[in-house]
Request: fold
Amino acid sequence: MSTFRAARLAAAAAVTVGVLAGCGEPTTHAVSTGGDGQASATLPALRTKLSAIAVDECATEPAGQIYPNCARFVREVQNVVPAARAEAGQVASPEAVTKAADAVDGAVNRFTQDRCITVGAPPGPAAECGPDLASMQEALRALVAAVGA
Reply:
């Protein structure tokens, strides 16, 4: 591999990480319980957010075809995981939320490591990226179910 190509790949990877990290603030800001120990409004907001993400075309369309268009979706999925973890204690099965959140994190990591979303370069191969997105779709469905969205 030429030095130029290696540098170009490294730059593209750095940009991809920046894109997926997002430049906004976390999805959820509220604490799980209010000052009086009552449940906050965060769990319903999380459920609404997860419901919206779950109907995105990147969550519902065939993964091997749609993955090149899913940078925003992946960022949204990645950003909602900390909120889900924070609310795990507010649902019937906190273990299911944690397990699903771990699966989402793993799928996001595989998707980014396989360079499935790139800036200024072709996306990764469908043979790797399709299954990576399919795994993310499945993990997201499990997270939605665990949170009760």
